[in-house]
Every structure is written in C-alpha cells, then in structure tokens.
Design goal:
Strands 1-7-6-5-4-2-3 form a 7-stranded mixed sheet, sandwiched between helices. The chain has 12 helices and 7 strands. 38% of the residues lie in helices and 13% in strands. It has helices at 2-6, 10-16, 44-52, 66-79, 90-99, 117-127, 142-152, 172-181, 194-197, 235-245, 251-254, 256-259; strands at 83-87, 108-112, 133-137, 156-160, 185-189, 207-211, 225-229. The structure holds pyridoxal-5'-phosphate. Residues 89-91, 116, 118-119, 160, 164, 189, 191-192, 211, 213, 223, 225 line the site of pyridoxal-5'-phosphate.
Length: 262
C-alpha cells in the first residue's frame, strides 16, 4: 500500500526505492548486466526448490549469474564444445580444468616447456603441493612428447595452441592422438589463437581454456577466463570448482561477451 509506505521515514523508503520491480514486459534485445549478488523469491519453498535444482533459477552469483552464463554459452558455441564454465581469470579456468581431470597424488602431468610462466608455476607449486608431478617436454618435438608420454604415463597433457611468449605452434591433432593412446586427456590453452583462428576441440583436445583477459575481452579492461569441454560430464567438476573455490567472474566482466570478438 503506497500510502503506508509514504509514511515511512525517507531513509527507510530509500533502501528499496526503485528496486525489486517486476521484470520489464519487453524482452531486452541486449542481455542486461545482472549486477546482483543475490536473488529473491516469493517463498522459502521456492528458494529450496531452486537450491535443490528442482526448479530453474538463480540464487547467488557465485553459483551462477545470467550474464556470466551468457558469456559461457557464447564461448561454448565459439569453441564448439559440449559444456562451458566462466571464471574470474585464465588462471582460475586452468585450475578448474586440471581439477576436472581427476588428478590424485602420484598422478603425472606432461606439460609443454613453453607454457605461460604462471601456468607452469600453477602446475609445479599448487598441483605439486598435492603430490602431482609435472614433466616438461618440447611440444614442437612430437617424438619427444610421445616418448615422455609412453615413459611417464601422464594423466593429462597441457599445451598452448600458440605459446606465450615464444609463439610456438602446437600440432593439436598429434598431441591429442598421443594423449588418447595412453588414456590421457589433452588441455589446450587457446588464448593466443582465439576460436576465430583455431578450435582445438575440433582437433581432438578434451578441454580448451582461455585467458579471456586477452583477445576475447579485446580492450584490456576486464579479467576473465573460460573452460570449454568436449564432454558434458565435465560440467559438474567445472561448475563445482567455480562454486567452491570461488573464482567466479563478476557480471560486468562477463559482459566481455558483448565487448569481445570485435
Ligand atoms: C597463454 C596464457 N594463458 C593464461 C594466462 C593467465 O590468464 P589471466 O591473467 O587471465 O589469469 C595468460 C596471461 O597472460 C596467458 O597469456
């Protein structure tokens, strides 16, 4: 009742003035940036249903956000994958992708010696501290990659389509064949190529990762990361890491979807 509300103190009225109106009748032609951290429902029952996954909806932006999901979906299409998840940075996306490969203590990673420095550091320090060993190889020498794969039986091979900073180009088809021959998965960081030039999943990679901070964003004004997998089954792990480790993009950064590709 508007009359009652007007009797409230001005400070009380301003807490919610102009907010929590019904969604607009017209469908916006450009997806709004949903800057809300939380979402409200009419009843606790409805909240419980959304939390339980029995009803579609958003609860809390670390668990999902319409703008962030739109970015992930755009990248799933761009990379021709089965599932995608967006993160606050490329490093968060790499971490989640490796986690999705079910690494346990004693597992081995076979990584390109030309990876971006922080990626090598992530493998050696963070994953290393959990007993996961990283072996390096020159991925431009495919015989060496095959020999190390056969010797160390890694669970995952990690490469960059075009390496940072030396711009070495990876033969993704052959690396995928080497990985799959020993039951390993291939993660490809496609940051420097972009899906416009190369779509690693079409060449046999299992998970493709980007620092969206670079070409995808395009303007050096937003941090972001994305992981796209060829396997729908990776969705639970990719989203699970986003929810629990919390490297979730804020929604304005996820508007990278609109800014990118130009
Ligand atoms: C090839 C590559 N991968 C990953 C990253 C990490 O991305 P971010 O800085 O968005 O975490 C970078 C950053 O420079 C990069 O160049």
């Amino acid at each position: 009742m508007a009359g009652d509300k007007n009797n409230l103190d001005i400070t009380t009225q301003l807490v919610h003035a102009g907010e929590r109106t019904d969604p607009p009748a017209g469908q916006p032609t450009s997806l709004p940036i949903y800057a809300s951290a939380t979402y409200t429902y009419e009843s606790m029952t409805e909240i419980d249903q959304v939390f339980a996954g029995d009803k579609a909806g958003y609860i809390y932006t670390r668990y999902g956000n319409p703008t962030v999901n739109a970015f992930a979906e755009a990248m799933r299409v761009a990379e021709d994958g089965a599932t995608a998840c967006a993160y606050s940075s490329g490093m968060a996306a790499l971490h989640a992708s490796l986690f999705a490969c079910e690494l346990s203590p004693g597992a081995v990673l076979l990584a390109s010696q030309d990876l971006y420095g922080a990626t090598t550091n992530l493998l050696q320090t963070i994953f290393g501290s959990f007993g996961i060993k990283t072996i390096m190889a020159d991925f431009s020498d495919l015989d060496a990659v095959r020999a190390k794969a056969n010797e160390f039986k890694p669970r995952v091979l990690v490469a960059e389509t075009i390496s940072n900073p030396l711009l070495k180009v990876c033969d993704i088809d052959t690396c995928a064949e080497i990985a799959h021959a020993i039951g390993a998965r291939l993660i490809v960081d496609n940051t420097f190529a972009s899906p416009y030039l190369c779509r690693p999943l079409q060449h046999g990679a299992d998970i493709v990762v980007h620092s969206a901070t670079k070409f995808l964003g395009g303007h050096a004004d937003a941090m972001g990361g994305i992981a796209v997998s060829s396997e729908q089954a990776d969705s639970a792990a990719l989203i699970g890491v986003m929810k629990l480790v919390g490297g979730v993009p804020n929604s304005p950064s996820a508007a990278i979807r609109r800014a990118g590709f130009d």
